[in-house]
Amino acid sequence: MALYSDKVMDHFQNPRNVGKLDDADGIGEVGNAKCGDIMRMYIKVRDGVIVDCKFNTFGCGSAIASSSMATEMIKGKPVDEALELSNKAVVEALDGLPAYKLHCSVLAEEAVKAAVKDYYDKNGIAYDPALFSKLEDCEHCHG
Amino acid sequence: MFVYADNAATTCVSRAALDAMLPYLLEDYGNPSSLYAFGQKAQEGLQKARETVARCLNAEPREIYFTSGGSEADNQAIVSAARVGARHGKKHLISTKFEHHAVLHTLDKLRKEGFEVTLLDVHEDGVVRLEDVEAALREDTCLVTVMFANNEIGTVQPIAEIGALCRERGVPFHTDAVQAAGHMPIDVKAMNIDMLSLSGHKFHAPKGVGVLYAKRSLPLFPLIEGGAQERGKRAGTENVAGIVALAAALEESCAHMEENTAKIIPMRDRLFAELSKIPHSKINGSLEHHVPGTVNMCFEGIEGESLLLLLDREGICASSGSACTSGSLDPSHVLLSIGLPHEVAHGSLRLSIGEYNSMDQIEHILEVVPRVVAYLREISPVWDALEKGEQPHLI
Questions:
Q1: A120 CA to chain B: closest CA distance, Å?
Q2: Interface test with B, best of A39, A60, A71, A139 (most B CBs within 10 A)
Q3: Whose CB has fewer CB within 10 Å in chain B, the N or C terminal residue?
Q4: Closest-CA residue to B64 (of B46, B45, B80)
Q5: In chain A, domain spans
Q6: Which of B12, B254, B298, B324 is catalytic?
Q7: Residue B13: C-alpha distances to residues B17, B193, B240, B293 (Å)
Q8: What DSSP line would sit under A37-79, residue for residue?
Q9: B260-293 pLDDT per residue, tens
């Protein structure tokens, strides 16, 4: 059996929304180069809706595929809906990831959250800090 | 174009090895321990193989023990030496930080059993210093084990010098020669090697067969208990066909070593020369002390697994020391041992070529790798930060 599903390979080899947004309303970066993966997510918001979304990723095949899938899943969605994107949903949309690669999908979820937090911060939109509590710590980089 | 450039991982079986082994699978399949003539034919094949391997290493046939591979040979050499040492109150072993896990994990096991282990630095060039070995030697040292050539970066260690030092100090010396056997001249007598491990599938024999050479005067304990095969040092019905193939492959590799090396080196050098032109790349390990076919480089700002997957798509089989390819969160211990920062080690690529490769294939690699590195850098936030000067380039 191949390491990755066809879906993962498709999103890795033909990533959607790869690139940068020069006029992004929110930019989120998560991960650590020491651990081998960093994701940067750019979002453009109009009337509370993510009208455009791009990503840059340094990482393995599943990290790139997870970022790509996450951008597809939040593009066109209201910001508060994007916040509900879970790593599990990303994994399911990719037809699964190997167990030791699940953290890549967690990073994708966190990258989206980080971009939304940046958007909220830049625009003075109030939010419950608990929504972003996970972003403070990368468990892989410690210990 | 399909390019197999992972010969340090494994190799194809040569025609000579296959031809040598087939009769022992189809016709002379008897058990070498059986008394009847049919079994004795297998016994003869085994004996001839032992003589051939001994000749290739300048050892005696009775010093050759066939195993299931390099890992088993490493395990047996180290555990046996520790056991002999413990009998004399010697419970200290010396090795290096960048050994194969077959060595490092065996040493870890011994450490938990109360042995002390000193792991020597291999410096930025990936070469152990003789004076470091000398400084680490103690009255209670029962084994020095240093690999002949490193499997990831290809650096060759001063084996003869370490052997001479150990001989002088009366300490047994083992070398894991898995990456060297069949590719570089090995003379256990001239190099003062007491024990040596090798693995057939690294030089065109099938997988699952290896050799432990152990000097006659050295006590050797079995790892696997059972029948009296291999003079009681390795139980289990012998893998006769595999052993015969190993001997044929080793003999062929040793006979053609010079011409193979002469073919491989220009290909390797072209890879180094051209891939070094990629900005912010780095060659890992000294080129002065190097096995012929191994090329290990880092490309800053990218991650190894995605590089390998994209190379695979273009028909190129290679490997990397990134965390993702090692299945752990840390990149290769070998790359860390030569002082590479984690960030840089994640972007490593190992191409290991052999005499079955061609210059056309090298040109294909040279067409693909720079393009794939450039693409991965284009989508990498790490590269973006480096290029904008937000982070300093490390290489």
A1: 22
A2: A60
A3: N
A4: B46
A5: 6-136
A6: B324
A7: 6, 28, 16, 17
A8: EEEEEEEEEETTEEEEEEEEEES-HHHHHHHHHHHHHHTTSBH
A9: 999 999 999 999 999 999 999 999 999 999 999 9
